[in-house]
Write a structure and sequence with these properties.
alpha/beta, 2 domains, seven-stranded mixed β-sheet
Length: about 300
């Protein structure tokens, strides 16, 4: 089978398509025939060496949508089922950017019925990150939340999930994204950081990775959650600071899939690329300005 891997760090050209053995699922694992897999900024980080792993073959890809192709002992899944899942980790030898991938059975959920595999693949990593970040914030209905990067893949899901929890959401995004983020349910839109008064919100979910600048907008004793593990700014003024490290969770993913089918969560695909054009996809990601996700199709 084909798989996208990195053996030496660098730019888009560092990504290789190699032929490798089809992986076999172990106990409580399944093998998925990949129909679609998302290219995320985390993959670019792996490619560039941000997470280490020099000298190893590193597989790329976290999200997957596809069909159960084989199941290990006690996996609880049936061959032929349509699923979405998360292949967690930055130091794995094979990821979801491949013809087949093996994942833990409890990292998978039945695929949404209302969207195709390309759109379904955009759910696992980004929606789980948004949901788990909101869990860390631990806000109550009626409290105010500022989401930075609200038009991005994580930020947009965060806005919709926060609104569903009854939070008063302010969305920070580019001026041209106002109509989109308001359609997600944000009660207030700001396009420039100067429009936000210091200490004016109960919490910030910093999907744009603004760091200390975004921390200034949190009231004394509020809470800040970032999206890069262990990279949150230091606490000031009694503000609790934290960062989400996404965890594979099939049960939670099933809840998010249900919200897609209910129309609560909006999936977005910017562009698709054949797996063989993965280098072009990495180059497009590096250009920036992507609205929605880039999706690889074997």
């Amino acid at each position: 089978m084909r798989a996208a891997v990195v053996t030496a760090f660098g730019g888009p050209e560092a990504v290789e398509i190699v032929e490798t053995t089809v992986p076999e699922p172990g106990a409580r694992q399944i093998r998925i025939k990949v129909a679609a897999a998302v290219l995320n900024p985390a993959d670019a980080g792996v490619r560039a060496g941000v997470f280490g792993g020099a000298g190893k073959r590193l597989g790329l890809g976290w999200d997957v949508a596809g069909t159960v192709d084989a199941a290990g002992v006690a996996a609880g899944w049936t061959v032929g089922e349509q699923v979405v899942g998360l292949s967690y980790g930055v130091a794995k030898s094979l990821g979801t950017h491949a013809d087949y991938v093996v994942v833990d059975a409890d990292a998978v959920a039945v695929a949404p019925a209302s969207v195709d595999a390309v759109h379904a693949a955009t759910v696992p990593l980004n929606a789980l990150t948004a949901a788990q970040a909101l869990d860390l914030l631990a806000l109550e209905a009626g409290q105010s939340l500022l989401v930075t990067g609200a038009a991005g893949a994580v930020g947009a899901y965060a806005v919709q999930l926060a609104v569903r929890r009854g939070l008063a959401v302010t969305a920070l995004a580019r001026e041209g994204d106002e109509e989109f983020v308001r359609s997600l349910g944000a009660g207030r839109f700001v396009s420039g950081s100067g429009e936000i008064a210091p200490g004016s919100v109960d919490a910030v979910l910093d999907a744009a990775i603004l760091g200390e600048r975004a921390l200034e907008w949190v009231r004394d004793g509020g809470v800040f959650v970032g999206v890069i593990p262990h990279a949150q700014p230091a606490s000031v003024r009694g503000v609790r600071t934290d960062a989400v490290e996404v965890a594979a969770d099939g049960a939670r993913l099933a809840e998010l899939v249900a919200l897609v089918d209910e129309g609560v969560l909006t999936t977005r695909v910017a562009e698709t690329f054949p797996l063989v054009d993965v280098v072009k996809a990495h180059a497009r990601l590096g250009e920036g300005g992507v609205r929605g996700r880039l999706v690889l199709v074997p």
